[in-house]
TrEMBL record:
Keywords for the protein's UniProt record, in alphabetical order: Hydrolase, Signal
All residue ranges annotated as the SGNH hydrolase-type esterase domain in the record: 213-408
Protein name: SGNH/GDSL hydrolase family protein
Signal sequence extent: 1-29
Pfam family, one: Lipase_GDSL_2
UniProt xrefs under InterPro entries: GDSL_Rv0518-like, SGNH_hydro, SGNH_hydro_sf
Coiled coil stretches, renumbered: none
Record-level Gene Ontology MF annotations: hydrolase activity, acting on ester bonds
Length: 425
């Protein structure tokens, strides 16, 4: 039986920990750190969902004789970069007729003097197999940290969308024809989602370190405001910009530890979104509120209410897998959510019973020895007069954080918390 890369990494990490040399043909534990390549931006792929789910996908029916342009802001810069497209949840091969990249000048406009056609295995037009990602050839263009880029893709044939990222928090643009080389797109429609675009990697200093923010809508930036780069991982990237650290946002709105719907569950996507990334040193885990709040409510009416033991077991699994791969695990306590979604069709997301489970989980997180560090976000953002709520100036909708709340969270992720004894390196 063929050995998967993640299994190779796990075996080698265990072997190194025991002082045992890796067997010939396996990937050494050092292989994740040999190059200076690091993921500098990400939008974790999600499968589309069916119409019986209460939230719309916000996607067009398909892409056909159109250009899709997706602006983004990277964290760490580098002397060249690669683009990753994903057909992970596609049922059929995905034909792409052309990809280009340029510096974004705002909205759907680009600086044509920076325009580069992008090839994949030397090809400008290519097909991504069903279930697969596709990594571009290096783009010979130096990019500064916090650069604004725009990736344009042309689709000439009717193209089904089955892989996307729902909560883009950045406006994308869809226009007729092949406008990949247009400075300003004409007749463009705006989209709030990411489609097929999953990662940007940069070639940086060999001593580069990567941090993955692994969470749900609070990490994904829900309610922080589109086109503002006001998520907490954005502010963390700004704080670490001079320290040769890349910050990757692997948040998915609606993400859960144990069940899938708006993205696969945390245990299922941990290899893809954390372990497989080159040069990752730390993962910051902030997830679990949807596991507590979805069961028996409009999001998951038939799911059973979870127990504390089930949530603890999920955290323990993620801890074991991070440690076996030499990755530091930082965990945030779950933030208050009293009155979340009150008065909406999703009434019932909060209840005193659900909040008791949150507080029991937080108490366990604070005392557990499974984690390398704990950031007590619950106490950090709670209203001192009503600790079951987020402080008024830090919250956007009683569940998600305002930009100021996201700044507070990012500030708590100090180098000492993120890297421990290696903070000064």
């Amino acid at each position: 039986m063929a050995m998967t890369n993640s299994l190779k990494r796990t075996i080698c990490a265990c072997a190194c920990a025991l002082g045992v040399a890796a067997a010939p043909g396996t990937v050494s534990a050092q292989s994740n750190t040999e190059s200076g390549w690091v993921t500098t931006w990400s939008a974790s792929p999600q499968p589309i969902w069916e119409g019986n789910f209460p939230l719309p996908t916000l996607l067009p029916f398909n892409l056909w004789q159109q250009t899709l342009r997706q602006p983004l802001r990277i964290s760490l810069g580098g002397k060249s970069f690669r683009i990753v497209l994903s057909n992970e949840y596609g049922h059929d091969p995905l034909p792409v007729d052309g990809v280009s990249v340029a510096v974004s000048t705002g909205g759907g406009a680009i600086d044509l003097s920076t325009h580069h056609a992008v090839t994949f295995s030397g090809q400008g037009a290519f097909v991504i197999p069903a279930g697969a990602p596709m990594v571009s050839d290096p783009v010979p263009m130096e990019v500064a940290s916090l650069s604004e880029l725009a990736v344009s893709m042309h689709f000439s044939r009717p193209t089904e969308i089955r892989t996307f990222h729902w909560d883009g928090q950045e406006t994308s643009y869809l226009a007729p024809g092949d406008q990949t080389g247009a400075a300003e797109m004409t007749d463009a429609a705006e989209l709030p989602t990411r489609i097929f675009l999953s990662d940007i990697l940069v070639e940086a200093n060999p001593e580069v370190r990567g941090v993955v923010a692994y969470g749900d809508s609070i990490t994904d930036g829900a309610a922080s405001g589109p086109d503002l780069n006001a998520r907490w991982p954005d502010f963390l990237a700004e704080a670490l910009v001079g320290s040769n650290v890349a910050v990757v946002n692997a948040g998915i709105s609606g993400a859960r530890l144990l069940h899938s719907k708006m993205g696969e569950n945390a245990l299922a996507r941990f290899d893809r979104d954390v372990l497989s990334r080159p040069n990752i040193r730390t993962v910051v885990l902030l997830m679990g509120i949807n596991d507590i709040s979805w069961p028996g409510q409009a999001f998951a009416p038939d799911d059973p209410f979870l127990t504390l033991d089930a949530l603890k077991a999920a955290y323990a699994q993620l801890s074991a897998r991070a440690r076996m791969n030499g990755i530091r695990l930082v965990v945030g306590t779950l933030t208050p959510f009293k009155d979340a979604l009150s008065g909406s069709p999703l009434e019932g997301y909060y209840s005193p019973e659900r909040d008791r489970l949150r507080q029991e989980l937080n108490s366990w997180i604070r005392s557990s020895d499974l984690f390398d560090a704990v950031v007590d976000l619950d106490r950090l953002v709670a209203d001192p007069d009503d600790p079951d709520r987020i402080r008024a100036d830090l919250q956007a909708d009683h569940l998600h954080l305002s930009p100021e709340g996201n700044r507070v969270v990012a500030a708590a992720m100090s180098p000492d918390v993120l890297f421990g004894e290696d903070a000064a390196k």
